[in-house]
Amino acid sequence: MPAVTRKCIVQSCTNNSKDNPTKIFLTVPKDENRRNDWIRALNLIKITDNGRYTVCEDHFDLEKDSTNWMFYKIMGKKLMLKSDVVPHKNLEIATTTIGSQLTDSEKKT
Ligand SMILES: [Zn+2]
After folding, report:
1. 85: CA distance to ligand 1 center in Å?
2. Distance of CA 101 from the midpoint of ligand 1 (Å)
3. Where is each THAP-type domain found (predicted)?
4. How many domains does the chain have?
5. pTM of the model as a whole
6. From its phi and psi, is residue 83 left (phi > 0), alpha (psi between -120 and 50) or beta?
7. 109 falls within a domain
8. Quick check: is 106 in a domain?
């Protein structure tokens, strides 16, 4: 598999899989309706093509937003989002706020 760097498409977010290898990156749904929901939620005007886009875990509450969080954590299964979930956290354009939310997953070694 070629090493593709995944980038978060949220405008105010700079996470990518190279700088943040422990972060989870979720693929924007291929289904057109779901994809449009995501685009609206993210305030993105253009994702017009069918390319592969990802949003990082910072914009979800994955423990609640996924259907199999425990399986994912314990057994390393592919994480499945609930069918009506869209990115909903940390979506504002960052202007003056810093370090609003720290989670366990951000602890560095
Ligand atoms: Zn992000």
Report:
1. 16
2. 13
3. 1-90
4. 1
5. 0.77
6. alpha
7. no
8. no
How far apart are the C-alpha atoms of 57 and 15, rounded to whole Å? 10
- Count Cβ atoms below 10 Å from residue 51 Cβ, excluding itself: 7
pLDDT digits 0-9 by tens, 55-81: 999 999 999 999 999 999 999 999 999
* Strand-pair partners of 66: 81
19 by DSSP, 3-state: which? Answer: coil
CA of 6 relative to ligand 1 center, distance in Å: 10
Contact status, residue 43 vs residue 60, Cβ threshold 8 Å? no
Span from the CA of 74 to the centroid of ligand 1 (angstroms): 24
C-alpha of residue 89 to centroid of ligand 1, in Å: 9
Q: Structural domain of residue 88, as residue ranges? A: 1-97
pLDDT of residue 62: 97
